[in-house]
Design a protein that fits this description.
This protein has about 70 residues and is of the alpha+beta class. The chain is built from two helices and four strands, in the order H-E-E-E-E-H. The longest helix has 12 residues.
Amino acid sequence: MTHQDALASLNQAATWRKSSYSEGANNCVEITDELPGWIGVRDSKLGPDSPILVFTPAEWAAFTSAVHSNEF
């Protein structure tokens, strides 16, 4: 499955989880791992209207590791 195929499937995902760091604010992200082997990320403010970024588990691990290391 390609990133594009995963995006099409995740666009229909029913379960999205808001970041635990949001503390009630609307300026964070939601993720879903409803599609095995893929992680979808979207803007919590836009909800279903948000564009979705699609990551493999390895890509997601590299991204979150970089965030935690203040590489951005």
